[in-house]
From TrEMBL:
<dbReference type="InterPro" id="IPR036388">
    <property type="entry name" value="WH-like_DNA-bd_sf"/>
</dbReference>
<protein>
    <submittedName>
        <fullName>LysR family transcriptional regulator</fullName>
    </submittedName>
</protein>
<keyword id="KW-0804">Transcription</keyword>
<feature type="domain" description="HTH lysR-type">
    <location>
        <begin position="1"/>
        <end position="59"/>
    </location>
</feature>
<dbReference type="InterPro" id="IPR000847">
    <property type="entry name" value="LysR_HTH_N"/>
</dbReference>
<keyword id="KW-0238">DNA-binding</keyword>
<dbReference type="GO" id="GO:0003700">
    <property type="term" value="F:DNA-binding transcription factor activity"/>
</dbReference>
<dbReference type="Pfam" id="PF00126">
    <property type="entry name" value="HTH_1"/>
</dbReference>
<keyword id="KW-0805">Transcription regulation</keyword>
<comment type="similarity">
    <text>Belongs to the LysR transcriptional regulatory family.</text>
</comment>
<dbReference type="InterPro" id="IPR036390">
    <property type="entry name" value="WH_DNA-bd_sf"/>
</dbReference>
<dbReference type="GO" id="GO:0000976">
    <property type="term" value="F:transcription cis-regulatory region binding"/>
</dbReference>
Length: 287
């Protein structure tokens, strides 16, 4: 027998003096309320209501037990409330700085439908890995080579000048007699990882560019500011280029991509929210 449900039916019927009204207040059919009260009477060994009248009048036995029944119902409701709160306690998740606020908000909204509330912590790749190792966050999007991750984000370069058809070759950034400025490709902190940075710098050296022409910026904001005020290029995804109002083109000498793997001990976010995560990362094909 569902004792809590039986006591709840008993309390609602007693308060309203009617099985019909009491059942409605408890959110159950009248027949269910009647069965639960009858089962409770059998369990307690005494009549709770005088059924010789049209109203659900309490017997002396029922009046004596009603205060305790109400306390039990309130306690059960309190436990249920605390259980709901515990399930919705925010879970910290380390995410890239590149994730847009609106996309993170949609990810959080989608997660709440699965009783998960996310507290986002933006951080660069190395810091996200450190937070996981130190167990300061239970969830994180870690930077990995694209062939080892669950999501891949193709990279290219973007600038203020309208994009020409085709790819950008790094060798085109070499200075000659017709150029007066040394154009650069700026690497944002999110791409300061070996599988992106080292490969790009190897091509830089192979085509004869200066070391300063392919360099890591101090911050994403600083990198975008430099690009907006010059002919420099930003290494970024298509989604970021759209966000910053820049014109994006792929690289000619190599294909680069960010790779991401999710640390998710529960598996809930990975199973149900893969598309929302892809949208946050700017993975191509994300809706």
């Amino acid at each position: 027998m569902d004792l809590i449900g039986a006591y709840r039916a008993f309390a609602h019927v007693a308060e309203r003096g009617s099985f019909t009204l009491g059942a409605a207040a408890a959110g159950i059919p009248q027949s269910v309320a009647s069965r639960r009260v009858a089962a409770l009477e059998e369990h307690l060994g005494g009549r709770l209501f005088d059924r010789s009248t049209r109203r659900a009048a309490l017997t002396p036995f029922g009046r004596d037990l009603l205060p305790s029944a109400k306390r039990l119902v309130r306690l059960a409701e309190s436990v249920e409330h605390e259980a709901r709160r515990a399930k919705r306690r925010p879970v910290r998740m380390a995410v890239p700085d590149t994730c847009a606020t609106l996309d993170l908000a949609w990810l959080d909204a989608d997660a709440r439908a699965h009783d998960v509330v996310i507290d986002f912590h933006r951080a660069p790749p190395a810091e996200r890995a450190d937070l996981v190792r130190a167990r300061e966050v239970p969830m994180a999007l870690l930077a990995v080579p694209p062939d080892e991750g669950d999501w891949a984000v193709p990279l290219g370069v973007a600038g203020v000048a309208p994009a020409r058809p085709g790819a950008v070759h790094l060798e085109s950034l070499r200075m000659d007699r017709t150029t007066t400025t040394r154009r650069r490709v700026l690497i944002q902190p999110e791409d300061d990882v070996p599988h992106v940075r080292d490969r790009l710098q190897q091509v830089r050296d192979a085509v004869g560019l200066r070391p300063s022409q392919v360099a890591v910026a101090d911050s994403l904001v600083a990198a975008v500011a430099e690009v907006l005020g010059s002919t420099d290029l930003l290494l970024c995804s298509r989604a970021q280029a759209r966000e910053f109002g820049l014109h994006w083109r792929p690289l000619g000498e190599l294909r680069l991509a960010r790779g991401y793997d999710l640390v998710d001990p529960t598996g809930t976010v990975h199973t149900h929210l893969s598309d929302a995560i892809a949208r946050c990362l700017g993975a191509e094909g994300a809706q």
